[in-house]
Amino acid sequence: MALPSLCSRIKTRPIVDEWELLLRNVGEWRGWFDTMDRSLQRTKRQPSLLTLQPALSGIALHLTLLLWPEGEGSPLQKPAGEPDKRIVQSFLRVDPDMGVFATGSFSRGTLHRSNWKTLYAEFGFLHNERRHRLVLLWDSAGQLDRIVLIREFLVGSSAVECPPLEANQLMGDWRCDINSPGDGLRLEADDLEQWVFLPDGGAFLAPLQIDPKQTFSIEALWLSSPTRLERIARRYAINGALTSVDHQLLTR
């Protein structure tokens, strides 16, 4: 069951320019990429360093992602040895498949799902010196195949990981914030039955098997503090087309 929609939805395109909002993610982010199967069994952990740096001209945004071989350790320390994978990209604008919100959080993913095309959804939450990212990937048969949880910490900060999320942390009254003047909502146990709870204060709600004859939604949330909850929902029509991306910031 999706969370009750008692808050006014935020428009997909914020009033502030999305590029300026995306720049809130600038910095060096050290963390982990945890790959899990659909039963949440971890199959791989890779230490990472992601750098987002604007060009001197201010026109482009450069991304460099370094991934080290599978290992443990603290995300606040540089892994031993050399990275075994390097990804370098440059952006001149916010891509059509991405929405960026007033908090600097974002979501991107498949714009139209077809029978021959796999589907993915990424949710990137930002708060202070932390980023919590989640990537969900379905195979060509429409079955949820992989879950990638990415926990990132701003280099040089003292940020810490959030506790694993439990339903009782969400229950109770929440008020809407950031251009969302509704009366708020009250979460009960029944509202959270089908959500999948994750380490680092995260959770998601998504179909394990996509039915091409039904509408569906993919939702994620992050409890970055006991009083701050952020939620993003991607909604798809029967024909597989993305219809909306909704964002809410809830506080109490």
User: What are the secondary-structure elements, in order, as H or E?
Assistant: HEEEEEEEEEEEEEEEE
CATH class division: Mainly Beta
What's the total helix number?
Answer: 1
Coarse structural class:
mainly beta
Looking at the structure, what is the overall shape?
Answer: globular
Instruction: Quickly count the domains.
Output: 1
Percent of sequence in beta strands: over 45%
CATH topology: Lipocalin
Low-confidence stretches: 8-15
**N-end to C-end Cα span:** 22 Å
Largest pleated sheet: 9 strands, antiparallel
Radius of gyration, taken over Cα atoms and rounded to an integer in Å: 18 Å
DSSP summary, beta strand count: 16
Secondary-structure arrangement, i.e. CATH architecture: Beta Barrel
Strands of the widest sheet, in order across it, are 4-3-2-1-9-8-7-6-5
* CATH H-level superfamily: Calycin beta-barrel core domain
Please give the share of residues in helix: under 10%
Mean model confidence by pLDDT? 90
